[in-house]
Amino acid sequence: MSDEVIQGRLIRPSDVQMIADLLARNGAWNRSRLSRELCQHWDWRNGKGQIKDMAARSLLLKLEARGLIELPARVRPGRPNHRGLAPVGEIEHPTAPIQEPLKGLGPLRIEVLKRGNGNLELFKLLLQRDHYLGYRSCVGENLKLMVWDARDRLLACLLFGAAAWKSARRDDFIGWSPQARERNLGLLANNSRFLILPWVRVPHLASHVLGRVCGRIRGWWSERYGHPVEALETFVERDRFFGTCYRAAGWVHVGATVGRGRNDVRNDSALPIKEIFLRPLSADFRRRLAA
User: How many domains does the chain have?
Assistant: First the structure.
């Protein structure tokens, strides 16, 4: 292979050989141990000094997919479901209908889930069961949010994670160069899941939640990862939704995809067309992203 940027890091043939040597010398290591050791070797850390373990795991998977390395066998607890994922056990939770005006919910509480939080399994269950895209474990920087009303009734779940590597309409709207995109992609986050729970029927709730989240997510991201995000993106399937709640919350429609996935490098993926929405979070977001 030639020098290439993977997972935001310049990877040279010598780096691939070093990883292969680590694997050959340490046959007892699992994937987690390898990714941690790799971060330590490169001193690969986020803005808060934490090793970028999940980014390293994603990088290793991409190298394996290209046939450059062979990783240890994956250990999957449980029996996979139809999506190839270990199922999340059923968790008891209220499902009584919530049908009332938005003002009747009182001030909403947005919970930022952290590792070890008792609600994490419920978050995974709800997305896996009730969101049409299901749920997959996140790689890299991400935020998992749950929204509650004043009476501690759960209303919604949101997931923000890594932005798409390329998107022509989005990139034109931002105006950054390929080099700036490689440097600053971590300053853009993707709202990959937004679920208003099926038993919740509250007019204008979705756009209200998005507005509340957009007003605070820069601070949450800085607290978690040591840097803010300057804008948000989302991709809405044209044949399923109109993106009404995003428009109402001030997101900007910048165009549509051409039916390729974020990892399609051979132009051979046929995916649903998606409308692209962006939400700037600072007045000078373009300057910050294009720096």
Answer: 2
Residues 107-125: b if buried by 16+ CB within 10 A, e if exposed: ebebeebeeeeebeebbbb
Rounded to whole angstroms, how far apart are CA atoms 17 and 23? 10
Identify whether residues 137 and 278 lie together within a single domain.
yes
Has residue 190 been placed in a domain? yes
SS3 123: helix
Domain of residue 247, CATH code: 3.40.630.30
**Span 215-272, pLDDT tens digits:** 999 999 999 999 999 999 999 999 999 999 999 999 999 999 987 655 455 555 567 8
Is 156 within 8 Å of 196 (Cβ atoms)? yes
Which residue type, as a one-letter code, is found at position 6?
I
Highest mean pLDDT among 29-38, 241-250, 268-277: 241-250
Cβ burial of 145 (10 Å; 0-12, 13-18, 19+) is buried
List beta partners, residue 252.
278
Residue 128, pLDDT > 80, answer yes
Q: Which domain holds residue 208?
A: 103-290
pLDDT digits (tens, 9 = 90+) for 169-188: 999 999 999 999 999 999 99
